[in-house]
């Protein structure tokens, strides 16, 4: 997560046990790290430092995230383990779409643009290892029951527009996606359609 620095100085007196006790709050809960350094007033060269990290549920625990977070990377549903969608910064190439939500920018991914395409690395077969490792429509329907607790991305901020999750499932020669907010499926996508990617973890 990126650094956001703001310094404040405080003074105090330790107890008989030599310990100084205080409460550290981060009222805005932005998923930041606070560095605390203690210095003895009579011995300026004697210091000790420790970091306090406030995490948020809407950011994953990865150096690619904008904020310190504890969003689960995986979850078990429908008898399989699914991975969360990818952040834009986790992609090796520019994805077909980027969607900001809760201070993170999430990537949209193609369903299957083809392994020889310049978009191959932003397609499900590459990201999931194979198209068969992408979530199925039934997986995504089962995910609906717990996605709110996971805080995985679903809706755009300040908008009623929401985004689907892509699946490997095909109906009538078209791929299906599932909207985790509205609980609706869309089986009209071509291989060049794009949405959030959730892969099955082996």
Automatic annotation (TrEMBL):
Pfam annotation, one family? BIg21
Where's the InvasinE Adhesion domain? 60-199
Limits of the Bacterial Immunoglobulin-like domain:
6-56
Disordered: region residues: 1-20
Task: Output this protein's name.
Answer: Outer membrane protein
Q: Which organism is it from?
A: Salmonella enterica subsp. enterica serovar Poona
């Amino acid at each position: 997560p990126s650094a956001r620095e703001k310094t404040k100085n405080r003074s105090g007196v330790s107890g008989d046990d030599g310990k100084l006790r205080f409460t550290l709050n981060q009222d805005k809960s932005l998923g930041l790290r606070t560095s605390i350094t203690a210095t003895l007033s009579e011995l300026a060269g004697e210091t000790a430092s420790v970091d306090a990290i406030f995490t948020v549920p809407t950011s994953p625990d990865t150096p690619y995230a904008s904020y310190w977070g504890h969003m689960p990377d995986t979850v078990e549903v429908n008898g399989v383990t699914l991975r969360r969608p990818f952040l834009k910064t986790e992609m090796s190439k520019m994805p077909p779409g980027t969607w900001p939500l809760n201070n993170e920018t999430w990537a949209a991914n193609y369903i299957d643009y083809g392994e020889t395409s310049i978009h191959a690395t932003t397609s499900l077969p590459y990201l999931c290892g194979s198209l068969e490792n992408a979530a199925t429509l039934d997986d995504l329907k089962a995910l609906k029951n717990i996605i709110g607790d996971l805080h995985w991305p679903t809706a755009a901020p300040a908008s009623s527009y929401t985004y689907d999750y892509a699946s490997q499932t095909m109906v009538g020669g078209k791929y299906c996606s599932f909207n985790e907010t509205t609980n609706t499926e869309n089986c009209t996508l071509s291989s060049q359609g794009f949405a959030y990617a959730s892969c099955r973890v082996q």
